[in-house]
Specification:
It is an enzyme of class 2 (transferase). The chain is α+β, with helices and mostly antiparallel strands. The protein has ten helices and five strands.
Length: 389
């Protein structure tokens, strides 16, 4: 009915708890009214009627939770049906037990969820009128007292339940949007590489084919010109290999500084608190590989987790550049596959005599640490990691 993990955002937890607390409060009041009337000697509230009223109270709450689930899943076809059943069950409860004045509130909150446009407003007014009529007919006190009950309890509880439910729906949509943005960022990078590969290979293969055809035509008639065509063909192949190597190994952004700036903007956009502290890296090769590591770590953080904060540190320790990326919101179900993209980078880091480690740490956090000698030639230092970061 709801998705709850250690990394669930505090706002979403508050919304979930608020919905359940309001429903439980209404259930407790309704059940208390049933037993209260039994103790007062109400002959109409026989044991079977009391049991039915208690069951109807739980059914009303269940209908509302079902409607909330449909909204969270984006299912539209059954919403009106669930709304009707919620109102019917609440009405039966009021008819069977006139003092059950809290139970129309879920029906009102459900109507507010379904309501869209003028027709939705008409549905809300109609349900309020039905609830008011039922409470006036079954109220043990005066009509003024019934109106006061409607204003103070049904409307307050109904609107309150609607507000916290709507908050939960919005937070759930925000979480899905954040995940989609992370996936879109990865897809855009793949599309860019695919497009550039297509253009590069297409041009190279066409040029190679033309040179090869020319060489074949000249093979029997002019060996010197044929040799020139083959030499040009070899140059095309070498140039294509160099371009392909640059495309597949180069970063999407120019430098580590650009990647850090992009990460900060992305985190701000999705509402993740970012703490970035970095020193400049002078060596170009080291700068490029560290930029790729940061890009992959940030992508994994947003794609496979639900972080509320992320810390990125770039420090220099005894001739070694150390990059540490730590985030919370690790989802256990993501498993090791969530970070397999770091395996290729680990090989590239090792080529510069560096080391890359990626591991889950206590507190639902994940940490990526990269150590590369400044210049890629000195042995990597074993300096202090960013403890507790």
């Amino acid at each position: 009915m709801f998705r709850w993990s250690r990394s669930t955002a505090p706002g979403e937890v508050a919304a979930i708890v608020s919905v359940w607390l309001l429903l439980m409060l209404m259930l407790v009041l309704s059940v208390g009214q049933v037993f209260g009337q039994r103790q007062q000697g109400n002959e109409l509230v026989t044991p079977p009627v009391a049991v039915v009223c208690v069951v109807l109270s739980f059914v009303t709450a269940g209908c509302y939770l079902r409607l909330e689930t449909l909204f969270l899943r984006g299912v539209r076809g059954r919403r009106i049906q669930v709304l009707v059943w919620t109102q019917v069950v609440a009405s039966l409860l009021v008819l069977g037990l006139g003092s059950a004045w809290t139970m129309p509130a879920p029906a009102l909150a459900a109507a507010l969820l379904v309501a869209t446009g003028r027709r939705g407003l008409l549905v809300v007014v109609l349900i309020c009128a039905v609830d008011l009529l039922l409470l006036l007919v079954k109220s043990d006190g005066t009509r003024a007292q019934a109106l006061a009950i409607i204003a103070v309890t049904v409307l307050v509880c109904g609107f309150g339940l609607h507000v916290v439910t709507r908050l939960r729906i919005v937070l759930d949509e925000l979480r899905r949007t954040r995940e989609e943005m992370a996936r879109a960022r990865v897809d855009e990078e793949r599309t860019r590489i695919s497009r550039e590969l297509h253009d590069l290979l297409g041009r190279t293969l066409v040029a190679v084919s033309l040179r090869n055809e020319a060489a074949l035509r000249l093979l029997d008639s002019d060996l010197e010109r044929c040799r020139g065509q083959l030499t040009a063909l070899q140059s095309l192949v070498i140039d294509g290999q160099a371009r392909l190597r640059a495309l597949t190994s180069g970063p999407a952004l120019i430098s580590l500084g650009d990647e850090l700036a992009s990460a900060r903007e992305l985190f701000e956009l999705v509402g993740v608190r970012a703490e970035i502290d970095a020193v400049p890296v002078d060596d170009h090769a080291v700068d490029q590989i560290l930029a790729a590591v940061v890009r992959e770590a940030v992508t994994n953080t947003l794609k496979h987790g639900r972080p509320t904060w992320c810390r990125i540190g770039v420090v220099r320790e005894s001739g070694t550049v150390v990059v540490t990326v730590v985030n919370n919101g690790v989802v256990p179900s993501a498993g090791e596959s969530a970070h397999t993209g770091l395996d290729d980078l680990r090989t590239r880091v090792a080529a510069l005599r560096g080391a890359l480690t990626a591991e889950a740490i206590p507190g639902g956090r994940f940490r990526v640490v990269v150590r590369i000698p400044d210049g890629g030639t000195a042995p990597a230092a074993t300096g202090r990691e960013m403890a507790g970061a």
